[in-house]
Structure formats: structure tokens, C-alpha cells
Design brief:
Blueprint (H helix, E strand, L loop, with lengths): L3 E5 L7 H13 L3 E6 L12 H13 L5 H15 L6 H15 L6 H9 L1 H16 L4 E3 L2 H4 L14 H6 L3 H6 L3 E5 L2 E3 L5 E3 L5 H11 L4 E6 L20 E3 H9 L10 H6 L4 E5 L8 E4 L11 E14 L9 H11 L4 E3 L6 E7 L5 H15 L3 E14 L9 H11 L4 E6 L5 E7 L3 H21 L1
Parallel strand pairs: 1-2, 1-7, 2-4, 3-4, 7-9, 8-10
Antiparallel strand pairs: 5-6, 9-10, 11-13, 11-14, 12-13, 14-16, 15-16
Bound molecules: aspartic acid.
Length: about 450
């Protein structure tokens, strides 16, 4: 039977009711055979995620401060969720004992000490959920990354999955073939030395993707508390359209520009196998969510989203006959590399080139250093800086085959009085990026949204 892998995020496991809803979701489709859980997150009246408490416990414990209250708060979260689900205090305490052991462990390697504690939110939650699921008629089995040997690098707090780690996950199929729903904690793996090592924050998405790939799932469902990806930021556009389907590449472009729906690294394992990701809302089962796929149908929109990010600056160089000077671009980018800066965009013309950077990286001294080196090494006719830029991206696979998108976008911006400072269309042709002054950002997004979404609706209904 084809299987679905599901991952439930922090808000979807935050309360007793949410746990009941997960059981409901699993029962609605028995193909949901592998379940990855986050640690309990925020909920109404609950401001602190379990993971945040665990981070605080580690810091305080390492500093020799009192941690009793924080430990009690973590335990209370688990009692509040599982006791009303008829799991006895004794059973819960039996599982929570693992947290006590980790807190009492030896602290000489502080990072190792931290990861073992911080991973406990997921670890304990998954084990307790498996116990509960069995009491309500789901044949569930808790499997831990340590037991199955999800081997990762020993980069504490930022683990990378090793090939043998992904390969070992294939054994989950044996449990599924035996009729179990596998319950697996997200966010961490185990090093070759047997230490628990976490991924970066939000890393349960990655665990879900690895498992989806390992069991060859036909879909990876990622459950959160939003309906899916919206085509623009609802703070700027009121009630923007939900994107029904987008490609992995479109998602990457949008998340680069600040759409944060999914842990970026998590796309890789599923993308390789062309497993669709479906983002879904635990609170709204009627909504089919957003599907992220390798190919989408042509009847979908040409443009899927308008994204904006602020806080950029650009170094703009002019040099007559620049195009004939071999190595000009390389030398320019080398200056940024030497000084330790990464760049975001590098649009160019015949005699001009700009390098766009995240402004946060810079200080007054560093700007002067960059300018001095550019002037000395490249001798431009003109060199100017521009601060407080916003980048606005129009993203869509449809850009590839469509004529006039750039013209339409530029005309929409000019009609609403937005001055375009720079334009960049990458060779992938799935996004056009406009640089505008940050004060114009909202007008620009509105103008582009009107042009590509509202007009399109008009066109569709004509
Ligand atoms: N619980 C972890 C965090 O808050 C990991 C996750 O939920 O994905 O970042």
C-alpha cells in the first residue's frame, strides 16, 4: 500500500485537543504510515515552546543557576497534554525520566550536553504520543533516531545527515510492513559516537522529508496551523490568494525572499525522489493546502507569488568598456569574498555592474574598505552606494514562456510612481527581482499583485 509520511509542527502538537486531532487525521486515511512530531509549541495562553524552555534549562544549568522552575514547566506541559488523554502520571513520569537523566549528565562538552536536552522535546513527545495512539486503536510504534541509527555529523546544533543515516531509515519500512504506524521524533539524529545531535531550529521538517524519502512515500504532508503558502504577505495585501501548487524551485525563490513556511534544507531529500510536499492546516481539514511538486500543470498561474525583503544595499559601478575588460566581474566579487561578505544579487549592463548585499553585514568602516579596494583595484569611472533597498521578486515558472512579463511589471510599478533602482532576471527565468527604495516597498508589492493576480482573475472570468 502506498504510504504517506506526515510531520506535525509545534502548534499541531501543543495541546490535548491537538493530539486528538492528529489521531483523527491518521484515522481518516490509513495510508498515513509514518508520523514525525515536533515538540509542543505555542498555543492560546501558552507563550513558550517546550524547545525554548529546554534551551533555557541548558543555559542556566551550564551557568550553575536554578532550573527547577523551568523543568517543572516542561513537565507540566506534558502532564497537561497527556493526563487528560488518560495516560497515567506514572507512565508519563517513566518517559520524562529521560529528561532528568540528560540534565544530570556530565557537562564537560557543553554543546553535547545542550543537544541531548534540547532534543528531548521531540523525543519525549513522540514516545508519549505513541503510547496514547495505541490506547485509541492505532497500532503505533515509537522508533527513535538513536535506535534506527539516523547517523548525522557531530556538528552540535546544526547536524548534517550522513548517507548511512538516510540509508538506515529504510528499515522503517519493516515496521510499516508489520502493520505499524511509525512515530518518530523530529529535529535530531545521532553521531557516529552515539551522541544526540540536533539539526538547526525548525529541523523536524528535515526529519519528515528524510523519512518520506526512505519509505518512498507518495506524499509528504507537512501539518502546521496555516492553510498553505499565500501569494503575497497578508500584512501588505489583504486576503491574498492561496497558492494551490508550486514547484520546488518556486518555493526556493519565495523562501529566499522571506516566505518562511518550510525548512529549506528539507526540500532536498524529497526533491531528489520527486515526492510531492503538501502543506496542510491541522485546524482546517477542508482546505487541501499547498502542494510543492517538481512539475506543475500549465493551467496553474504563470506567477505564483510576489515576495519582498528589505535591508539591502548596493554598490553600483560604472566603467566605460567594462565588457572588454577580462576578469572584471571576478575581481569585483573577489573583493567581497576577501573581506568576508556574501552577496545576494549581481545585476549588470554593458558598462555597469552592481553588487547587492544584506546591509546588516556592514558597518561604516567596512563600507569604506570595500569602496577603497574597488577604486584601487578596478578603477571605475563612477562608484556609488545605495542603502535601504528592498528587493521585490515576481516568482513563477510561467515567466519562462511568457512574453512581456517584465514590461507588464515595470509598467505597473511606473504607474504607481515607484522608481525601479535595479532589475535582475536570473537565467533560470523563474523570477524577476526589482530593487526599490524601502519606502516604496508596499506600493511596489501592491502594484505587482494587482497586475498579476487581480488582472488575471479578471482575464480568467472574461
Ligand atoms: N522544536 C524545534 C524548534 O522549535 C524543532 C522543530 O519544531 O522543527 O525549532
Amino acid at each position: 500500500m502506498p504510504a504517506i509520511a506526515c510531520k506535525f509542527g509545534g502548534t499541531s502538537v501543543a495541546t490535548k485537543e491537538k493530539m486528538e486531532q492528529i489521531v483523527n487525521i491518521l484515522k481518516l486515511n490509513p495510508q498515513r504510515k509514518a508520523v514525525v512530531l515536533s515538540a509542543p509549541g505555542k498555543a492560546e495562553g501558552i507563550e513558550t515552546k517546550v524547545t525554548d524552555y529546554l534551551v533555557a534549562i541548558t543555559q542556566k544549568s551550564l551557568a550553575g543557576q536554578d532550573i527547577e522552575k523551568d523543568i517543572a514547566a516542561v513537565k507540566r506541559r506534558f502532564y497537561d497534554i497527556f493526563e487528560p488523554l488518560n495516560i497515567s502520571r506514572q507512565t508519563i513520569d517513566g518517559v520524562l525520566a529521560r529528561l532528568d537523566e540528560r540534565i544530570a549528565a556530565e557537562k564537560s562538552n557543553s554543546e553535547k550536553y545542550r543537544d541531548a536536552i534540547v532534543a528531548s522535546g521531540e523525543d519525549l513527545n513522540a514516545e508519549l504520543f505513541a503510547i496514547y495512539a495505541n490506547t485509541v486503536g492505532i497500532k503505533a510504534k515509537f522508533i527513535s533516531p538513536v535506535e534506527i541509527e539516523l547517523i548525522v555529523t557531530a556538528d552540535f546544533g546544526d547536524a548534517r545527515v550522513k548517507n548511512e543515516g538516510s540509508a538506515n531509515l529504510i528499515h522503517l519500512r519493516d515496521h510499516i510492513n508489520d502493520g505499524y504506524v511509525v512515530i518518530f521524533p523530529g529535529f535530531f539524529g545521532v553521531s557516529a559516537d552515539g551522541d544526540i545531535v540536533t539539526f538547526s531550529r525548525g529541523g523536524s521538517d528535515l526529519t519528515g522529508a528524510l523519512i518520506a524519502a526512505a519509505i518512498d512515500a507518495y506524499e509528504y504532508e507537512n501539518w502546521t496551523d496555516v492553510n498553505g503558502i499565500l501569494s503575497a504577505n497578508p500584512k501588505t495585501i489583504s486576503d491574498p490568494d492561496q497558492v494551490s501548487a508550486l514547484t520546488y524551485r518556486e518555493m526556493r525563490e519565495l523562501s529566499y525572499m522571506g516566505f518562511s513556511v518550510f525548512h529549506e534544507e528539507a526540500v532536498k531529500p524529497v526533491m531528489k525522489k520527486k515526492i510531492p510536499i503538501r502543506l496542510r492546516n491541522t485546524n482546517n481539514l477542508q482546505n487541501e493546502g499547498t502542494l510543492i511538486v517538481s512539475e506543475r500543470l500549465p493551467q496553474e498561474r504563470d506567477i505564483v507569488g510576489i515576495a519582498a525583503a528589505s535591508g539591502f544595499c548596493s554598490f553600483n559601478l560604472q566603467k566605460f568598456l567594462m565588457n572588454r575588460e577580462k576578469g572584471f566581474g571576478r575581481k569585483l566579487l573577489e573583493i567581497f569574498e576577501d573581506l568576508g561578505y556574501s552577496y545576494e544579487q549581481c545585476p549588470s549592463g554593458v558598462d555597469n555592474i552592481s553588487v547587492v548585499l544584506n546591509q546588516k553585514q556592514l558597518s561604516s568602516e567596512s563600507v569604506n574598505n570595500i569602496m577603497r579596494r574597488i577604486e584601487r583595484e578596478l578603477k571605475p569611472d563612477d562608484l556609488k552606494t545605495e542603502y535601504n533597498l528592498s528587493l521585490i521578486a515576481v516568482v513563477g515558472e510561467g515567466l519562462k514562456n511568457k512574453i512581456g512579463v517584465l514590461a507588464e511589471a515595470a509598467s505597473a510599478l511606473s504607474k504607481s510612481g515607484v522608481n525601479i533602482k535595479l532589475v535582475n532576471q536570473g537565467s533560470s527565468e523563474i523570477s524577476i527581482v526589482f530593487g526599490v527604495s524601502t519606502i516604496d516597498e508596499k506600493y511596489a508589492v501592491k502594484a505587482l499583485y494587482d497586475a498579476f493576480f487581480c488582472n488575471q482573475i479578471k482575464k480568467d472570468s472574461e
